[in-house]
Phosphogluconate dehydratase
Amino acid sequence: MNKGILEVTERIIERSRKTREIYLERIAEAEKKKVHRAALGCSNLAHVMAAESAEDKAIMSGMKAPNIGIITAYNDMLSAHQPFADFPLKIKAALREVGATCQVASGVPAMCDGVTQSQPGMELSLFSRDTIAMSTAVGLSHNVYEGAIYLGVCDKIVPGLVIGALTFGHLPAVFIPAGPMRSGISNAQKGKVRQEFALGNVGVDVLLQSESACYHSSGTCTFYGTANSNQMMMDVMGLHLPGGTFVNPDTPLREAITVSSAQQIVKLTQLGENFMPVGRMIDEKSIVNALVGLMATGGSTNHTMHLIAMAKAAGIHINWEDFDDISSIVPLITRLYPNGSADVNQFHDAGGMGYVISQLLDAGILHEDVNTIVGKGLAPYATEASLVDDRLTWTPAPDKPRDPEIVSTVDEPFDHHGGLTMLGGNLGRSVIKTSALKPTQLCIEAPAVVFESQEELQAAFKAHELDKDFIAIVRYQGPKANGMPELHGLMAPLGALQDKGFKVAVVTDGRMSGASGKVPSAIHVTPEALDGGMLSKVQNGDIVVLDVEAKTLELKVSAEELAAREEAHPDLSHDRWGTGRELFAMMRHFVGSAEMGASIFDSIGEEQA
């Protein structure tokens, strides 16, 4: 096992010792009943069974077979979640075959960041993660399930489901993906049309035609953003059945994986042959594996918050130093858009997750000795799934890349660095994704141009005020200010300026899309501007230095002058109402910092510990 990975793992174990111990004690207390519905009174149980068939009522009242809850994020506006429409019926039928019952425990909200980008609704996006966790808890609180199946794919949805699942850590958990849509036009083509539109060279009709050719059917978007980074992590954490993450919807193989995944959870219940509650299954090594997978594949920067919040739900504490240290150890062995031109379908055909896991296990970079939904050890995930005579079969992943432009080897990687770096300095702490940057973009020193929304920057771009070298300071975009929306609208204008030869970068307390990376972006700056962060004191023309190799983010203004400056106090009232934002005032008030996971549960967790 790689020495550096072991050191980070041991550091996390020691840091988490007290909270993990408390968490496991609580799981043990909740595990005392093998059949949870047996604790209900007859009237309570009658409510549970009222709508079930006579056959299922007999099984449920017999108290000898597990009842599995489904938490579903289905809606048919999200292409990624539309395939889940008939999953509950398929899962019920599959479980009936093995003598178990199943009920939809609850639906959880599932918003699409692709729809809300640059819209007011994006200011609810980050908070939807913790809302999903709480909605999951409401569904499972009926205490009538021996395990839970989770149906979700996209950005905040899987992290929210994981937090909810780990809160009910005494129950086994299986996550079932829906699969990516088939490939449309390339992401490079789509990005080019977006920039041409930003420059005014093409109209909205051309832009819509391009976008519709990219997002064209049911299934997950095919670029490697947060949604597909989620799916990667579910694989390396052992929460998926092996080999099925990037199998397209509505195929016989996808159907077989769904059925087999559903039946697998019966074995994991206390009435099964291999009881494994998710709270014990996911441990410090599992979390480190997720970190390693994130770096090896150039995954989404959103997980510098989500993974912290997910781990904390299991009593495990990780931080940005852990991300930074692991990134310095783990090589980048995939080239997926935005870090390359390939999409996840091409990645899957080139060897996919089985190949990546095989490479990382052989190199001693992933922990093999972890528990998964298929048993002890991660080795079963170094495989590919297929149908042979209509039977689901696994074969070893290829030992060489099928397409060396998309996947490489650990010995000869695309980069010896995982592509994520933590920056620090008098502007605060932040993270930056470097896997899509050119060497000339790793150090930018330029005057600041200050904005308090992405719309201000877009207006300045259209007015041709930004044809120069500069670093955009986009502030008051943190979780306390306005819910920390993704600032996806910055990428087209800044990318266009970069292509003209200008040195540009962005520094913000907001987020970037998981599909971003072309423009140097120091994001998640902590403390945020509204919480006393130094961003609130930056003025136009101040020299800012963003240096990836030195890991610094500095404002070249003396400490004395900064101390004398007053903080900016913009009017944020327009972010307080409309599109449901008034209902989330409590979350803006109680949310923690980006570095702590941007969670409303932060202070609650500390009180419980």
